[in-house]
Design brief:
The complex is a heterodimer of chains A (about 400) and B (about 150). Helices cover about 50% and strands about 10% of the residues of chain A. Chain A is built from 16 helices and eight strands. In chain A, the strands form three sheets. Chain A has a three-stranded antiparallel sheet. Chain A has a three-stranded antiparallel sheet with strand order 6-7-8. In chain A, about 50% of the residues are buried. The model of chain A has no long low-confidence stretch (mean pLDDT about 85). In chain B, strands 1-2-5-4-3 form a five-stranded mixed sheet, covered by helices on one side. The chains are: A mainly alpha (about 400), B alpha/beta (about 150). Chains A and B meet through α9, β6, β7, β8 and α13 of A and β3 and α3 of B.
């Protein structure tokens, strides 16, 4: 009987029981494979999770499933021939990848791009940014168990793909830009159609914010999850919406302006911890929603200012930039896309390194995932919006 | 600060043997392999430089050596600099800067995987893109394409 035992004896019994309980409940850590085929991975990514029940103690991302050796291929191709390969860096924002590659080669070869081509490029890049953020909105909804956003997101994206199709004939890998300009001028009716799309999307975004962003269930699920502090983000080279979500006002379109961005007005949305803490999954999500509004602003201004003239500078079929090297970066929808190109004076790059945003953004996921639940980890990873071909190249 | 000012300041701060080359598109500072850790530390932590962001780390397979390229940027001062370290091809070893910039962890693994350059002091220097049992380092200029991998014809 417990009341007949002395106090210290009772303590010993309780302690012993607690230790046994610890052995049973906490003692065992488990390695779980998440992916490479998993509904929440957005591609082929394997994460080995060291877990204790539902709590993650460590994450080991295993990448490389989509490694195609793009950098090796670049050395075997000439500068023009590599353009379609840049589409495959990030298939969801192929225009932006075209754009970044063009900027690098043009700096290497000191090529002046006609004004009209610059404006067309910006219009295409911003439309593509909207398209990929719409997919993000949809997949983020899916991850929280909402089916409607992806249907809406794809409906709107379809209109952008129609615009791209009427311009260059492609709907996913556009191969539209050329060194020194773009391949084709805008077709008749493009400007009106793009304006109508901007007007329609602006209204729809309000609707989507009501439906998903400010939905209390969604907020409860997303706020305070996967908090990424700003200094950690910079240390890991995180860029793009995840960095801005952590409250850092950093956008290469403003901080290192390129093309005609200095002539256009737009703001940089940042995370403010509106629903939870600064740098949580909801902040990263909301930055992208606001970015779409800003992209609409940019597209509208660019359509108004679109000057007449040439769409392509004269660049020879055999293009041999002078020996030298260059590193040019630009703001992709996922962050900094940089091209480091070394030329030895021949028609092929001697070395071409693609620095992609998703690679660095993914590398910052393990340190912020310690101690989170597996179900939260899915949302936290989803809010980084990584694209695996971009990680693996 | 522009690149030459950064070099002058760095030269005054450190005793390391460094060299400046003012190429028009990408000015860089040449650093000896033994000095890279110290130079990186100064550039990262000194308030005048504050290079808190490692934009990119990669390697070029030159005819005589491997050149490791560090592209640095300061979020605070908005200036940038490039460092270059040369290492012989037959024994390519460079001290790791992982402790200075966490981003270097994956960048250095990638360079090790694709070029075979080893980084001394790296916490987990294993292949990142290719399978662990892959032979050779594909981005080397003299890389021989394998005919098969685990019995699969490539």
């Amino acid at each position: 009987m417990i009341d007949s035992l002395k106090l210290d004896q009772a303590t010993t019994i309780v302690k012993g029981a607690a230790e046994r309980l610890e052995e049973v409940v906490i003692g065992e850590e488990m390695l779980i494979n998440m992916g490479p085929q998993h509904p929440s991975t957005h591609g082929v990514l394997n994460k080995v999770l060291k877990t204790d029940g539902e709590i993650i103690s460590e994450v080991f991302p295993q990448i490389g499933y989509l490694h195609r050796g793009l950098e090796k291929m670049a050395e075997k191709l000439n500068y023009h021939q590599f353009m379609p390969y840049t589409d495959r860096i990030d298939y969801l924002s192929a225009m932006n990848c075209n754009f970044a590659y063009c900027l690098a080669v043009e700096k290497l070869g000191a090529i002046e791009v006609p004004k009209r081509a610059e404006y067309i490029r910006v219009i295409m890049a911003e439309l593509n940014r909207i398209a990929t953020h719409l997919v993000f909105m949809g997949t983020m909804g899916l991850e929280t168990g909402a089916w409607t956003p992806i249907v809406y997101g794809f409906r709107e994206r379809e209109e952008i793909l129609d615009l791209f199709e009427m311009t260059c004939g492609q709907r996913l890998t556009y191969n539209y830009m050329r060194i020194g300009g773009v391949s084709d001028d805008l077709p008749g009716g493009f400007v009106d159609k793009a304006r109508r799309f901007c007007d329609a999307l602006e209204k729809k975004l309000v609707e989507y914010n009501n439906l998903l962003s400010y939905n209390q269930i969604f907020i409860d699920r997303m706020a305070n999850i996967g908090v990424l502090p700003a200094d950690l983000a910079i240390d890991y080279g995180v860029t793009g919406p995840p960095l801005r979500g952590s409250g850092v006002k950093w956008d290469l379109r403003k901080n290192e302006p390129y093309s005609v961005y200095p002539e256009l007005e737009f703001d940089i949305p940042t995370g403010k911890g509106e629903q939870g803490r600064v740098g949580d999954a909801w902040d990263r999500y909301m930055v992208r929603m606001h970015e779409m509004e800003q992209s609409i602003r940019i597209v509208r201004q660019a359509l108004d200012k679109l000057p007449p003239g040439d769409i392509r500078a004269k660049v020879g079929r055999v293009f041999k930039p002078a020996a030298g090297e260059v590193y040019v970066r630009s703001e992709n929808p996922r962050g900094e896309l940089g091209f480091y190109i070394v030329s030895d004076g021949s028609a092929n790059p001697y070395r071409l390194k693609i620095r992609t945003a998703s690679f660095n953004n993914l590398s910052a996921v393990p340190p912020i995932s310690k101690g989170t639940m597996i179900s939260d980890f899915v949302l936290s990873l989803g809010s980084f919006d990584i694209v695996l071909p971009e990680v693996d190249r | 600060m522009n690149a030459s000012e950064i070099f002058e300041k760095l030269k005054a701060r450190s005793r390391e043997d460094i060299e400046f080359q003012d190429s028009p598109l990408l000015p860089f500072i040449k650093v000896k392999p033994d000095s890279i850790r110290n130079v990186a530390d100064i550039l990262r932590n000194n308030t005048d430089f504050r290079f808190d962001s490692l934009m990119c780390l990669t390697t070029v397979d030159n005819p005589t050596n491997f050149t490791i390229v560090y592209l640095l940027y300061s979020m605070k001062h908005s200036h940038k600099i490039t460092l270059k370290v040369e290492t012989p091809k037959d024994n390519a070893v460079v001290p790791s800067v992982e402790k200075v910039w966490s981003a270097a962890n994956w960048f250095e693994r990638e360079v090790y995987d694709l070029f075979g350059v080893r980084f001394e002091g790296h916490s987990n220097l294993v292949r990142i893109m290719l399978p662990d049992d892959w032979e050779g380092h594909p981005l080397k200029k003299d890389y021989q394409y394998p005919a098969t991998y685990r019995g699969v014809v490539l």
